[in-house]
Predict the structure of Transposase.
Amino acid sequence: EVWEHTSPSNMRDQWGMWYDWAIRSRLEPMKAAARMVKNHLGGIIHAATERITNASAEGLNSVIQKLKYVARGFRNRDRFRAAIYFHLGGLDLYPAGITR
């Protein structure tokens, strides 16, 4: 039920009820999870209601890490930066007059 709400206040109430239940549990791992959720509840609710992720940033980072691995080292930072711009810059490198 905690994920079914679109209103942040309703979601906060549901998570609060879950927290109360979990903290009364005799299971220490459940209590630890409840405390962690309580500490991050604002971010959890924001992510669930706004549906915003950092997936695009993670994708760019993945490509940059792959460039680092494939190159196994550039001569200097400027060349590494140029490689990042070349691969991620969205340049249109097709010659004029040629269609894709």
